[in-house]
């Protein structure tokens, strides 16, 4: 009887361990890649701040851009955007009124053709979160 009880406890522990491992594995996979839930977060181009609308228009026109770093490669080190090869993403400054520096707002676009990006993303918090820009 003691052996049967110990076996039940071991089976319960194994079941719980497997469930925890499955959750951990799913969380780890999500942290390493693009989450479908995050891709649902969008912003209409018309809803961007006025400065963001201007930057977005400049991107589609090919410039000229006011900052030297505009158009530089964005490394996606945070891995919040879909994984792509290095050089796929480029970042652009969205002016922040009253800021003495570039501020925290950016638009990051990905694609082969700079003026015809596959997708663009807006961040107001210096790459901590992104919203896909929809026309």
Q: Main traits of this protein?
A:
35% helix; globular; Ribonuclease/ribotoxin; hydrolase; 2 domains; 135 residues; Nuclear Transport Factor 2, Chain: A; nuclease; 3 helices; 6-stranded mixed sheet
Model description:
It comes from Ottowia flava. 35% of the residues lie in helices and 18% in strands. A six-stranded mixed sheet has the order 1-6-5-4-3-2, covered by helices on one side. The model is unreliable at 5-39 (pLDDT under 50). The protein folds into two domains: 1-32; 41-134, Nuclear Transport Factor 2, Chain: A, CATH 3.10.450.30. The radius of gyration is 22 Å and the shape is globular. It starts with a helix and ends with a strand. It is built from three helices and six strands, in the order H-H-E-H-E-E-E-E-E. By secondary structure, it is an alpha+beta fold.
Named CATH topology of the largest domain: Nuclear Transport Factor 2, Chain: A
CATH class of the largest domain: Alpha Beta
User: How widely separated are the two ends?
Assistant: 68 Å
Label the CATH architecture of the largest domain: Roll
Q: Roughly what percent helix? A: 25-40%
Sequence stretches where pLDDT stays below 50 over 5 or more residues: 5-39
Q: DSSP helix count?
A: 3
Number of domains: 2
Q: Would you list the SSEs in sequence order as H and E? A: HHEHEEEEE
CATH homologous superfamily assignment of the largest domain: Microbial ribonucleases
Q: Strands across the major sheet, in which order? A: 1-6-5-4-3-2
Largest sheet: 6 strands, mixed
Tally of DSSP β-strands: 6
Taken from the alpha-carbon principal axes, the silhouette is globular
* Average pLDDT for all residues: 79
Structural class: alpha+beta
Content of β-strand: 15-25%
């Amino acid at each position: 009887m003691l052996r049967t009880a110990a076996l039940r406890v071991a089976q319960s522990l194994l079941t719980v361990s497997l469930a925890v491992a499955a959750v951990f594995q799913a969380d780890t996979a999500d942290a390493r890649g693009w989450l479908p839930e995050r891709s649902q977060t969008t912003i209409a181009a018309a809803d961007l701040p006025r400065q963001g609308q201007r930057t977005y228009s400049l991107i589609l026109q090919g410039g000229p851009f006011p900052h030297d770093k505009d158009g530089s490669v964005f490394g996606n080190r945070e891995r919040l955007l879909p994984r792509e090869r290095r050089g796929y993403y480029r970042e652009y400054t969205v002016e922040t009124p009253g800021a003495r520096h570039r501020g925290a707002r950016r638009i990051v676009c990905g694609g082969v053709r700079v003026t015809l990006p596959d997708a663009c993303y807006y961040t107001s918090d210096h790459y901590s979160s992104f919203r896909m820009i929809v026309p």
